[in-house]
Amino acid sequence: MRGIEPPLRAWEARVLPLNHTRIALRRLKAILRLTMKTVKKIIEILFPGTQKKAFYAAVRCKDCGEEVRIRINRSSDFQMAHDSSNPSHYFTVKKEVMGKDCFNLMGLTLALTNNASLLFADVKGCEFITFDRERD
Fold this sequence. Notes:
Helices cover 27% and strands 34% of the residues. By secondary structure, the chain is α+β, with helices and mostly antiparallel strands. The chain folds into 2 domains: 8-46; 54-133, no CATH class. Strands 3-4-5-6 form a 4-stranded antiparallel β-sheet, with no helix packed on it. A 3-stranded antiparallel β-sheet has the order 2-1-7. Strand 1 and strand 2 (67-73) form a beta hairpin.
């Protein structure tokens, strides 16, 4: 009776069965790594200084006092806003976070101008501390 193992002569061979697939996978990984590095370099050349698109806000939990720093990505977290009563209100950012030690849900809503300056912050379950741009 024979199982799923290859015959003895296959184990004694210099190359095991399906070894070529591992080599192809290593080559593919190397090509992808090189491609991603090239794409990043092209983006840096075409759009200099646009890589840092993050902002940070900090809030403090009302229950435990834990300070939580929140990363805000301009490409995915900013929402266009139209407020006829306040024409300088251009973007809205809404975040809900939890601290590491406390399970109190904290809500943060920011109103920003078109150049991402803070107009006002609305919080739930926490107090607002700061809002600033990512530094180099």
